[in-house]
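hi! just following up on the protien thing from before. the input was this:
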Amino acid sequence: MNKELLLKVDSALNFSVNTQIKEQLKWLIGLGEIVPGDMLPSANQMADILGLNRNTVNLVYTQLRDEGFFAMQKGRGTQVLDSSKVEVLKKGRQPMHQLVTRTIEEAAAQGIPLVDFFISGLAYTLLQQSDAAVHLQILFIECKGHDHLFYRQEIERVTKAEVKTIFLEDLAITDSTMIEALESSNVIITTLNHSAEVKKLFSRYEKKMYVIGATTEMSLLLGIARIKPESHVGFVCLGKEGGQWMANSIRDAGITQIHSHALGIDDREKLLGGIKKLDKVYASPAVFKELKTIDPDKVELYPMALEKSSENLLIDLSDDFMKQI
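and the predicted 3d structure came back as:
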């Protein structure tokens, strides 16, 4: 990318460096300074420019990917997406830009410090919110290999809550990320795959934790049971861990006549080589669209569903929260 991104961070501000970088990048997208197809500097390059830790930049890129603004591919870098989310952002930021510009000019004319003005303005906005605007705040913990997008969407669907995703890989690196996320959340939710690890990480914090799980739809099990014995079948997710969970679910259902292979889209070279050798490929919802373009004849969706007990748990959690406000 040839464009120079004039981002800044100010450790004296009362909101995190992560938020500062993320919101500046969203402004650059909204104003057309960076456009769909543009490649972002690598995490290492951006960290060097800003004098930050690489993991901080990685977290921002990951959050913007989850919000639908960026695509991240191992070996290819981080790219601005041509997506509906980007279009909505651009349409919303144009009138906002005009309003903010006028406000900055008026505040400067009156000698009002801009940072103080906007931070106090945010606080005043919070004071004006009614009780109806209060939402359940959920911290969702998952690894990058599983289909965390599916779980997040299901949590949002059932609870109508505001969900923040934090990855275990990032928590193992910095404790500040954990503390910041905890302070703004009412409860923690994780998946059965990582419940023991998350409980250990958060054992010293007074925060309720809930564990949810996913199941495989019966229609898929019936379809795989009919596959020719000794066929080589691939199960692909965001990472190999997720693909292994998919393969294990098939095995646990008693389907053992096939040779299962777990793959992750994060290892693209191995993935492309594997697809050529496989007889059939099942892709999780997060990667299905991309894999379908690679080999439409081999690739099928691996449909997932939230366990009924997990859905009931989320419903109860949401109802309990609403009773308290």
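The chain has three domains: 1-128, 133-213+308-324, 216-304.
The first strand starts at residue 70 and ends at 73.
cheers
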